[in-house]
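Residues determine shape. Next comes a sample protein:
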Amino acid sequence: MNRGVVFLIILLTVVVFAGLVQYGWTNRWGGKMDTTVEPPLVLAMPQLDKSLSLDDSDFTDDVWRTLAPLAVPMMHQVTQKPHGQHLVRAVNVRSFHNGKDVYFLFEWKDDAASRVHDIDEFPDGVAVGFPLGGEPPAMSIMMGFQSAVNIWQWKANLDAAVWGGADERFTANTNYLYVPTAGVPTADEPITSACQDLIATRPGTLTPKETTALTGRGQWSDGAWRVIIKRPLTTGDAERDAQVKPGKMHVVFAVWDGSKGDRGSRKSLSEWLILDVKSSESADGAQAGRSLATMDLPMLAAAAPAEKEEPRIIEIQAKRFEYTPSEITLQKNELVTLRLVSMDVAHGLYLDGYDINMNVEAGETTTRTLRADKTGRFSFRCSVTCGPFHPYMIGYMNVEPNTRFHIFVGVAAAAGLIALVSALVMRTKKEAPQND
């Protein structure tokens, strides 16, 4: 056989074998998972010299044309069965304030307007939630919150009672009280607003407030709802009311489709967003939609000094009795921020080799930033007794050297050396004298 052909066969075999070894070594702990947290959407709230009284004409007022809608994607609420049968995929949101009141305009598709709340009928609705504190609480798949949140909820049945359009089945004898209840204050309070001002701390704690300055109105036409919610920017109850002030704050949205059985915790829910409240000095008019909204945070980062390195954010959700993700992979010298989120009870995270200990209460979040300057596989485990299977709550952080190029050079050199040795051996055998 020609020595050149033999050489190529040997070289190809070595290269393929080296490639398989490299692939197996790279994936020895499973495939890599992208755990980078995408920046939240940003909804701009400029200050405009405009007031709305929630008349019919306010839904088509020119002020809304100056504000490009932010398309907010929604996700299923998956606790209650049946799961995943219906989803309001997106809601368009516009907002502004005039220095006194704040306004939200919500628009979403709905084939039918559900304005009745009965035994087997449920009204449409939309809500906006504000965390009563700094860092937003962890998302819960029940009510969407795991610590104090102020919720402004518009409901179509309340809207019908206030603005007209109520079902005629419920108009007869509306003031009638049976004898056992006559004179006893058990009748429903008169409905004065299409919105409910609510407080939720954890699942099952949704509580309406006694008084509120919250108002709203909705219009349904051509298979879509348009809802305006209005409230003063600030109130005298900072403990239980969201105070909307210039700056950035978190906000979350929810939508109910009553004709599809949505009610209570059955709803479509958004992720946490950033509400950027502009003052009169900083107001720039209109928002440029989703593209500019998602560019807001990266542009701020780009404006920072060039020498400032931004860490990669990795969110780790702690829930009895596992971490999600349970394994993360970093490159050596990478700067990362670990964001630990408790989804149920108090948890901890102790990272071996880096001596980092993080503790977080139920429904809260904590962060730590580190430089992955040590290579190897480091375990992290729950440092707080969270239940009977607490010792098995373990994850791993893999810090890999950036050695792909070095491995390739080494494999190529080894392949060349093996091929050279093989050629020399074959030549020696060919030139050796034959014995009779």
Notes: The chain has a mean pLDDT of 80.
